[in-house]
Design a protein that fits this description.
The chain is built from 16 helices and nine strands.
Length: 416
């Protein structure tokens, strides 16, 4: 097994922009991992890491690999320079993309609001919301797990945890946060869109200022983080709102949908989970391993470094393909098999080390509640007649996100 193969050699099978790759990347990733677990892609202008061992090393090594994309030296450098000019929050330290000491300060402020005790107090609300969404299934012959369930559940839980309980307020705050995020991800957007983002940022700031009096309310544990004093600046609090509020749209909703699809395609595992509810916790971990909603985590070399017998330059982008690491046969037995009884090494879906996801516990809770309530509502998971054989996915190879997954309601559904 070689350490590095130049990108041009393997573009015939490693083309992450190809529709067939987005539908099922695992065969190509397996070939790439076998040929070159550390691979220099000329097309992506990045290093691509596909083995579990090397992926774990990169994610744990904050000294040599940063999560801060402003350190990039490739085409991203210009993107982030423009972003810094046009986005009101782009220069603000964020948990997902900052290093120590800023990351430690932000993480210390957030951690008390994601403890086990706090999560236990939220479990009932999450269950109520899941059941309310599932009750709507009786109105139509099919029920879309993505648009009717996973996305609205994850969105509602995220904002509810931040103290935004009213559905209309959740919709407004979500709209503002999305517009702000759009400025960060597309700084070259048209002027009208940039203006809308600036207005959204002002609206979000005004809303949080108005909610300051609610900071001590027991039903809004994370609201204290956003309104109380301490080490966070006002702009950093706004960044926390945007990041935590929008997190469920991608990772949590994606995991719920991917988990439902895995159960639908593996009826023997669905039956095992129904017969043995105690397997649920492990099933959540298997869903996150088998088809992680975030397929790639980005890092950048902090300096010229030697890694895995290869020389990297400062600012080189390193794409850690956790989707490939999770199917590494050197670590996982029969890695391509979905097994709710699997008991093995931990997955990397929430990252490792310093940047292990602060909301991992909340995400696991949401996924568990969602799968449990889906199985309770539907005695059998069966694709709706109109469902395509291969569910459509977002055209982004770094995310494994289904955009629609209709299942059959039928006469056998449990009462709402």
């Amino acid at each position: 097994m070689s350490g590095i193969v130049q990108g041009e050699v393997h573009l015939a099978f490693f083309n992450p922009l190809r529709p067939s790759f987005i539908e099922d990347p695992y065969p190509a990733l397996a070939r790439l991992r076998e040929a070159a677990p550390l691979y220099r892609s000329a097309e992506l202008d990045s290093w691509v890491v596909t083995s579990y061992d090397l992926a774990s090393q990169v994610l744990r090594d904050d000294a040599r690999f940063t999560a801060d994309p402003s350190r990039a030296r490739n085409a991203l450098a210009g993107h982030f320079a423009l972003q810094a000019q046009r986005s009101g929050l782009s220069g603000v330290a964020r948990m997902n993309s900052s290093d120590r000491p800023d990351h430690s300060r932000l993480r210390t402020a957030a951690n008390p609001h994601f403890t086990r005790a706090v999560l236990r107090s939220r479990a009932g609300r999450i269950t109520e919301r899941a059941r309310a969404l599932l009750e709507r299934r009786t109105a139509t012959p099919s029920f879309d797990i993505v648009t009717d369930f996973a996305v609205p559940l994850a969105r509602s839980v995220a904002w509810d945890h931040l103290g935004v309980h009213d559905p209309d307020e959740q919709e407004a705050v979500h709209r503002w946060a999305t517009a702000v995020r759009r400025l960060e991800t597309a700084p070259d957007a048209p002027a009208a869109e940039r203006e809308a983002g600036a207005e959204a940022l002002a609206s979000l700031r005004a809303y949080l200022d108005a909610r300051g009096a609610d900071a001590d309310r027991g039903d809004a544990p994370a609201l204290q983080l956003l309104t109380a004093g301490g080490d966070l600046s006002d702009e950093e609090r706004l960044g926390v709102v945007v990041d935590l509020g929008l997190s469920g749209n991608g990772s949590v909703a994606g995991a719920i949908a991917n988990g439902a699809l895995a159960l639908l395609r593996h009826p023997e595992e669905e039956a095992a989970l129904r017969a043995h509810p105690e397997l649920l916790e492990g099933a959540v971990e298997e869903v996150l391993r088998y088809d992680a909603p975030t397929a790639v985590l980005g890092r950048w070399a902090t300096a010229d470094v030697d890694f895995a017998e290869t020389s990297m330059r400062a600012g080189d982008e390193v794409l850690v393909v956790v989707a490939a690491a999770h199917r590494d046969p050197a670590v996982f037995v029969e890695p391509d098999r979905f097994d709710v009884r699997r008991d093995g090494p931990p997955h990397l879906a929430f990252g490792l080390g310093t940047h292990h996801c602060a909301g991992a516990g909340l995400g696991r809770l949401e996924i568990a509640v969602a799968l449990r309530e889906l199985l309770a509502a539907f005695p059998v998971l069966r694709a709706a007649p109109e469902a395509p054989r291969t569910p459509p996915r977002a055209r982004n190879w770094m995310m494994r996100q289904i955009t629609s997954l209709p299942i059959e309601v039928g006469a056998g559904s449990a009462a709402g």
